[in-house]
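In response to a reviewer's request, we include the raw inputs and outputs for one of the modeled complexes. The two entities were modeled together in a single run.
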Amino acid sequence: MVIRNVDNFLTYLSELLFLIYEKYPKTLKSNDQVRVEDILEYESMEDLVGWLVDKKITELSYAGLDKVKEEVSKKHNFDLFPDVGTFEKINQFVGLRTLFVHNRGVVNRRFISKYRSSGYTLKQKVNLDGEGIISWLDVILGAAIDIDKRAVEKFGLSTIEIPDLNK
Amino acid sequence: MSDKKISENHILPKVGSKALLPFLRQYIDFYSFVGVSYYFAKQIDGMRDIAQKALGEKDDKKEAESKNNIAVNKWN
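The model returned the following structure tokens for the whole complex.
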């Protein structure tokens, strides 16, 4: 549940970044090297840009949330998480997700060194109760709504109507 | 803004980027699942408390009866 919830948020960020890069492909400019062989696979500039956007998003999705925040701030002058507390919480959720996926939810040295203020201790088994999970959901939802509203305004992204999802 | 709240602190927007809708759909699924599970967990906790309390009262009663019997035996 926790894993899928964090994945849902990270997928949202990837898809949002895709929309931004797709609209402003020039922000893909970098010193990164691309093989001629790969370039020649695409018949149009549009297809090539689409591939570059995909490549960039894949790289960022493996880089970690702090790197994504840094990249978006540097390249797009957009702060994904203006509230430090929210960023720290979500970044820690990502770290806990990794613990659940790769370490059966047992706190390891890597987690402790990366999330010093988490309050968890080495070898502690992380157990989240119902209230804990609901508070996670709440923080993640708030962040997504906030990011989306600001991104739509800043980048002039096209919008769609959100139906009443509570029905 | 929609007037439908899905949590205490946030209200769903009426419009959003193309990336937001799939996120919200999945979020609602999670929220419903967690909410329902949490509700039942609370109910089970509540039932356990009631059962424990009832058992405790029963034990207290047994203990009182037992003490009473000892007292009665002593008198006898």
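As requested, we also summarize the result in words. Chain A has two domains: 2-76, 84-155. The interface with chain B takes residues 1, 4-5, 8-9, 11-12, 15-16, 18-19, 130-131, 133-134, 137-138, 140-142, 144-145, 148-149, 151-152, 157-162, 164-166 of chain A (CB under 8 Å).
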